[in-house]
Write a structure and sequence with these properties.
single chain; disordered N terminus; mainly beta
């Protein structure tokens, strides 16, 4: 089902409005006397509790050059490992909003799609080079059997309407494998001699497969990594760049240059994080009130921005001024490629190395 809205007409609950105001006041108190002014610049109420959220920036031509696509559910993340797997009671939804707060559409993916990042990645990528980032997801032709990977499909979605444009079968993994290794999926993108290629990948800790797809969705190449191959076989993070240190080692914080000075601050926005924004010396600069789904340059505002989990909020430093060091970073091709990977695996952290 697809819900279209021209404007966000959802009513805010009073208690949640109060919570948002208190968070804004608290941030103001923490930042008093400093040059930072961290505040939510966009707030969207989607009408339900959010247990998980992941988001990617998406370009929808000249009409909506700054937009965000996101997957969310009332459920917490469903992980394929038997020690963390559970049967979800709620479905996964796909939606697109502009960075001005307008909800363009929302689509329920149904009971056949497991709400978890390893089952259901999200990627925005202009494969056909028409100036619009198509959305790429994994769907299921067998909604009554969510684990039936034989019926999984790679879908291409119109980012402006939410309608399916095309689909092909999702590559099948090698079997037998344990549950934790069997459902590890990635959707990525690359350029070869200036030509875009869509990449898909399956597996971790065992046999792994990587495919490259042309514009017409014909397979260009498949690379198979057999079980027990020497070298790293874990695929939780997929940074794009030169083989150098990423420059950070605090796993539960997400790097963000909130004021545009070319130096990272860190937001405690993952796993047990409490939402604190801290500088390089550990000083608390503000608080976004909880976990984060994305932290990068995805609006025309100065500095980088933070997308807040729970309510859909975009936080920014309204005093931010991008210096040349920050502008060079945003223009780096590795920055642009890594920025769109936050809907895959644990890639919220990789921009800290650029």
């Amino acid at each position: 089902m697809i819900i279209h809205t021209n404007t966000d007409k959802m009513k805010f609950k009073t208690s949640l409005i109060i919570t948002a105001v208190l968070l804004f006041i608290m941030s103001g108190n923490l930042l008093n006397g400093q040059n930072y002014d961290l505040r939510p610049v966009v707030t969207l109420n989607i009408g339900s509790r959010i247990g998980q959220l992941r988001a990617v920036p998406v370009k929808i031509g000249d009409k909506h050059p700054y937009a965000v696509a996101f997957l969310y559910s009332e459920e917490a993340e469903v992980d394929p490992w038997e020690g963390m797997f559970f049967f979800p009671k709620h479905t996964l939804k796909l939606a697109v909003m502009t960075t001005s707060g307008e909800l363009l559409w929302r689509r329920d993916l149904g009971e056949g799609v497991v709400p978890g990042i390893w089952f259901s990645p999200l990627f925005a990528f202009d494969l056909d080079e028409d100036g619009v980032d198509e959305l790429w997801i994994i769907n299921n032709r067998d909604p009554e059997h969510p684990l039936n990977y034989h019926q999984y499909v790679l879908q291409k979605i119109d980012p402006e309407t939410g309608k399916k444009l095309s689909e092909i079968p999702w590559p099948k993994p090698e079997v037998p494998q344990e549950l934790s290794h069997l459902y590890r999926h990635f959707i990525l993108g690359a350029y070869v001699n200036g030509n875009p290629l869509l990449l898909t990948a399956q597996g971790t800790y065992g046999p792994m497969r990587i495919q490259a797809w042309n514009k017409d969705m014909s397979m260009r190449r498949e690379h198979i990594i057999p079980k027990n191959t020497p070298g790293a076989l874990g695929s939780h993070v997929t940074p794009v760049g030169q083989p150098v240190s990423l420059g950070f080692d605090i796993y539960t914080t997400i790097p963000v240059d909130i004021n545009g000075d070319g130096i990272h601050e860190l937001v405690k926005g993952y796993f047990e994080g409490n939402g604190d924004l801290i500088d390089s010396k550990g000083k608390i600069l503000g608080n976004i009130g909880g976990l984060s789904a994305m932290a990068c340059k995805f609006t025309p505002a100065q500095g980088e921005q933070i997308s807040k989990d729970g309510w859909i909020k975009i936080w920014a430093d309204v005093n931010a001024k991008d210096n040349q060091k920050a502008l060079n970073r945003y223009a780096n091709p590795f920055y642009k490629r890594n920025r769109i990977q936050t809907g895959n695996g644990y890639n919220l952290f990789t921009l800290g190395g650029i």
